[in-house]
């Protein structure tokens, strides 16, 4: 059981050099994860815009591995994926509402609220 017998040693933050070493060691896996899960088009777009917007002194550090580009690109990629998922979940609910309201109107039942029929249908289909 080697993984249970070894103990994690807390980071030594007693000096600035140790702090820098700990941060660089901790950022590397996080940066690798974010770069792997980022949409390349967003990263390229941010890189092109950074050349136009950043000061000239910072332009030499503009590359795809820069954290100032990777973090916003990762956040934008995750937001984009979340909105896509939310929209795809929302579409069937709207379709059911439209179908129920059209069927009620076709049957001449204008006084019946469409929600009274569409809610049980949604529960039957999605739960």
UniProtKB/TrEMBL annotation:
GO cellular component labels: plasma membrane
Gene Ontology biological process terms in this record: protein secretion
Compartments, as annotated in UniProt: Cell membrane
Family matches, as InterPro entries: T3SS_IM_P (IPR005838)
Residues annotated as transmembrane: 89-113
Domain of life according to the entry: Bacteria
Membrane topology: Multi-pass membrane protein
Keywords: Cell membrane, Membrane, Transmembrane, Transmembrane helix
Record carries keyword Ribonucleoprotein: no
Family: Belongs to the FliP/MopC/SpaP family.
The protein's name in its UniProt record: HrcR
Organism name: Erwinia amylovora (Fire blight bacteria)
Gene symbol of the encoding locus: hrcR
